[in-house]
Amino acid sequence: MARAKNFFKKLGCIFISPEITNDGRSLTLFYKYFLGGIFIRFLFMPFFFQRDLLSTYQRAADTVFNGNIGSDFQQLITNIIHSVYFLLSKTIFPFINSYKDILLNQDTWVSWVEFVKSDNIFIILAIFKFLYFIFDIACIFVILRLFYDGDTRKKLKIFKYWMFNPIVIFVLYLFARHDTIGLFVTLLSFLLAKKKRKYWAVLVLAIAEAIRFFPIMVLPILIIYLAEKKKDYMIMGAIGLSGLIAIEAVSYIAFGKSVIFSLLNAEHFNYIISSKLELIVHDRIFIFLVVYTVLILSFIKLKNKSFDFLMSYCAMIYLLYVALSYFHPQYLLWSVPFVLYVAGKQKNMYYFQWVQFLFLAVVFIYWGDLITKFLFASFDHRFFIYLPGPIPLINRFYDPAKFVNIFRSIFTGITLWMVYLIYLFNRKTSRENELSDKTGL
What pTM was computed for the model? Predict the structure, then answer.
């Protein structure tokens, strides 16, 4: 019995953190938050459906049933992960094979209707989303190792904030997007950076970039944080771009298509430059790129590039992106772990995420029925198909576009205020560092 207890205690020290595992009261709170968060996740997992989840697994099914590994060449690694998971799932749960015709149906509307009215819809939704649950839990265990060593109270606070975070729960279990996979690899990269494994950290971030585009936004400040010599900038820059270069090479050789140029010409890249100032004729300024450049330069100027600053600058980058550019709801997930780091010292940052989410819920109307009334279609597809959507209802009283944009503007204001609070957090941290240096002298 004692051996088993010691074994689980050692396991807890590895996966949770020694600070929490070795303190009985903290461990009790950990289990309380963990079980509460799991309950909420399992509550939402089987019952809400967004069309992109089906599209993701349709590409995976095309790979598994037809051997078409390039069904999503722009997100090759993500598709491979889903394909392997789908293959394992249909082996464990043979009834999934009955969904073959639905998953291979190229008609978007017909496949959606057939899917939501299927007999096993709740089970299949839970199975499909369970992959994101695995990476969700993996993310929080990495975060526990990443943030606030030696401070049990702050670790527990951040753990609670993640387990009950409305953005995390919505993106993964209602909207059901796969960003948590790339986010997990990104967090691993920062864990390596914290341990000063500089080349490994940048290499892992390069893998994250190959999975999802967003990690490249924080590549410059990670390199600046880790670089000790001038040659480090060149070496880590090359390593940091190696993931994209590798995917580009594989895609071009295997499928005859360019990932990089297809992404640059896709609407998703245009989101980054969607906010702009029109000058004369063809002359325009892309607002996010201007602000992003200023952030990078300000990080370079910092005398003491501490881990606090690295985390807070990542938070500002992702917050400014959603504040100043067109975005999809899942993009906000990338800001969450970094904002929570600041929330460990400034509790109000977590509550501002709730306010963000409340205004974001109105902004959802942008995307129409697919992420409003159709989220509930698995309960009764006929009822929710013919139920009037929010846009016609709003249109009876006011212009829907203006209505949504009012809330979008407030959302941007709240997000910019969060950036300002992080700026104040940085100033306070800078003063503390200066005071510490003087005391040390």
Answer: 0.90
